[in-house]
Structure formats: C-alpha cells, structure tokens
What does this fold into?
Amino acid sequence: MKRKLILLRHGQSEWNLENKFTGWVDVKLTKKGILEARKAGSLILENNIDIDMAYCSFLKRAIDTCAICLKEMRFDKVKTNFEWRLNERHYGSLQGLNKSDTAKKYGEGQVLKWRRSYDYPPPKMRLNDDRHPANDKLYKNIDPKLLPSSESLKDTLRRVEPLLLGEILEKIKNGLNVLVVAHGNSLRAILKIIKKISDEEIIKLNIPTGAPYIIEFDENL
It folds into this structure.
C-alpha cells in the first residue's frame, strides 16, 4: 500500500502580499490565503486522501492554514504536532524590509544572492533585538543556542533534517499518511533531502502558496 507525504505551503500571508521579507515574523493570512487553504483541503479531499497525522510550524500563517485545510477535509480531529524546526528560514536583519526597496539599496545581485543562494545567509539579527527568537516567549522552551539569528537554505535544511528523518518518515514507514504545513524554504529543504536535489538545482525550485505537493512512498520509503 502506498503511503503519502503531503507538503503544503501556507496560504498567502499579509507580508507575501506586501513583498516583505517575513521569515520568523508571525504575520496573518490574507483573505486570499484563507481561500487558498480551503482550496488545498478540497483538492486533497477530492483525491480521496486520508490524513492520519499533521505537522505544522510554530507560525500562525501555517497554523491557520493547517486548521482550515483539515476542517475542509473533515479531518479536524487529527493530531497536529507543532514543530519550530518547520519554521520558515530566518532572514536575519532583512526581516520586515520590502524586497524591492532592499534591492534598490543593496543592488539586485546582492539581494538575489541572499534570497536564492543555497549556503549564503543574510546579515544576522542582533541578539539584543526584541524581534530575535531568543527574546520571543513563543520559543521560551527551546534552547536559545538553537535559535537562529540568520539562516541560509543550507542552515534551514540542517534543522529540518533530524525531524524529517527521525520522525516524519518513520511515521510514513509505519503506514501513516502525513500532512506537513510549513513554509517555502522549510519545504524546499524537505524536498531536497527526499529527492536528492543538487545544491545548484534547489535554488530554482519554488513552491507556490496553498498548492498541495504529494509524494508517494512504498513500504521501504
């Protein structure tokens, strides 16, 4: 019997709409984002896919997407595990800045390197910045040494990998269908690991908001 991993990027957020670097900033879904979450649920339902367990990041745009999607499928009683390791890539001191304005200030090439390269992180956020995750009560139970000040996609992959290999894929190996609701970069990291995508090819991969990406596995994964 085929097991399924369903990857879902959250619906459009307020800062997606405003073209800002969002990262770990906890912004809401737009009306379009809510509709995208519903549509994702209806698409999964139409394809007769059962959900046995869900994983979701700590950020409300993903949490709301997950809840709306599961409700649409009438699987809202399914256990959801909330994992900070599924959070979006941390964009450091760029968080909150408009991408176009930042490109005008630093140059298109520099911003493209921050956004799309595999192993080149943006400038770090200062530890004494109120916005730093170490100063956010949402992460009070997480070792501060693990919380990033800035991340490349490679850094994001390193924090996602133990969760994927040690837990999520084990659930699938045991016969469960798992829904993962997260973010563009944490989902790109998952796909890079599973599909063995090269460092060069992964920078070309873009995951649209609200579009379920389904991977089927046999019993040997």
Q: What stands out?
A: The helical segments are 14-17, 31-46, 60-72, 99-106, 108-116, 153-173, 184-195, 199-202. The mean pLDDT is 95.
